[in-house]
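Posting for a labmate who doesn't have an account.
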Amino acid sequence: MGIINQNSASEIEKVERYCSLVRISKNLDKSISSDGTMIRIMNGNQEFLKPNPAIAEKVKINAALIKLDEFFEGKRAQKSSNNELDFGEFT
């Protein structure tokens, strides 16, 4: 929260979305751990294995987290640049 403009609703929403996606990712990890990477599907008398759908969702969540992290990386760089300028004034 220290790197964003806390008066900006959109920046606060990005932090909240990031935290929510991390929670979802952890829940997907639990599902994959408990159910496995492949799940057994019963369709009448037929039985077959298919990839756990949580894996595909995890890939989507990771992509969203990476995209949001690009925003935060820009904010970190901006804050670092501002701090260097502020520090330079005292030397």
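Reply:
Got it, the structure tokens are right above this. The CA atoms of residues 19 and 34 lie 23 Å apart.
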